[in-house]
């Protein structure tokens, strides 16, 4: 079952009038033939006007049918937040198994979040799973429709396994375990983090962000388009592996997009007095006139696979300041491609502290490109980060 929202005034599931919102219900339908011209709904509840409630989450709908036909719809959407500042409910979960659905529009199956009121954020997308029972696996859709992406809640962690297709639109989600899918699509201001292994043939990232783990990833083609960002997870220590990305065909980064692992490298290990110092890697980090020490340079210019190193704080001679902030060095990226078409940028620059954080800048990290052809008007940088007040 879905879960209800919370009231603004008393931080409980009910308000002073005794009202409450609930999540959507839970329904399983098994049918030889489903002729659906109306609707099947398990949407989240919505509070009454001026009730100050967050919306309830969508619930569960599980359909197992021989044939599905008709002009209807299936929804497990979140309920909207209501005045004042109620946040939207998250989407629920829908699974549809069928032998034939040629007479039904599967795009009318949704599990979106819903909008919030005033300062309330939108709910995150739920999941829609569609499987032809004649196939070994199905399609997973994580789609928040046209909801605003600002202040949007995340979808819960998802463990996809083997899929026929994966479509993420306007959603923030972490994918756990092995994700094996021929041609995943990440579009519409999505923010996707892969925490396991991605096994795919072609991958398109459009107007979105994708963070890959620090493991080898191999694709046939990769398109990074329309303001998209490809990055990797933070380095844990010097034994962390770089992101090793192989694209046997063409890797395309358009002029608005980038592969950026800046500030994803190492924190500084401080030995002695290193106040204010910048991180070293290929070049030595800058030092303060009163504290002339920093870490030694390291690595191999022919085969750069190391992470950059962060700067040191002025006040406590550590890698962090009293606010818990830190600067890191640049990340580590190896790209092997049949053809690299680079009109955007590939960056592994050092991190920069926030204003008034008194940090030395992080060193640049590693970028190793091995390509058949390289073309385009883009740039590749592994520059150090600036020091700050």
Q: Which range does the strand content fall in? A: 35-45%
Largest sheet: 13 strands, mixed
- What are the low-pLDDT stretches, counting only 5+ consecutive residues below 50? none
Helix-strand pattern: EEEEEEEEEEEEEEEEEEEEEEEEEE
The strand count comes to 26
Shape: flat
Distance between the termini: 52 Å
What integer value in Å does the Rg equal? Answer: 25 Å
Question: Which structural class should the secondary elements be placed in?
Answer: mainly beta
- The share of residues in helices is under 10%
Number of helical stretches of at least 4 residues? 0
Mean pLDDT: 93
Question: Helices and strands in order, then pairings?
Answer:
Blueprint: E1 26-35, E2 39-41, E3 60-70, E4 73-75, E5 93-104, E6 109-110, E7 127-132, E8 139-143, E9 161-162, E10 165-169, E11 172-175, E12 178-180, E13 185-187, E14 191-194, E15 197-199, E16 202-206, E17 209-212, E18 216-219, E19 221-225, E20 229-232, E21 243-253, E22 258-260, E23 332-342, E24 345-347, E25 366-375, E26 379-381
Parallel strand pairs: 1-3, 2-4, 3-5, 4-6, 5-7, 8-10, 9-12, 10-13, 11-14, 12-15, 13-16, 14-17, 16-19, 17-20, 18-21, 19-21, 20-22, 21-23, 22-24, 23-25, 24-26
Antiparallel strand pairs: 7-8
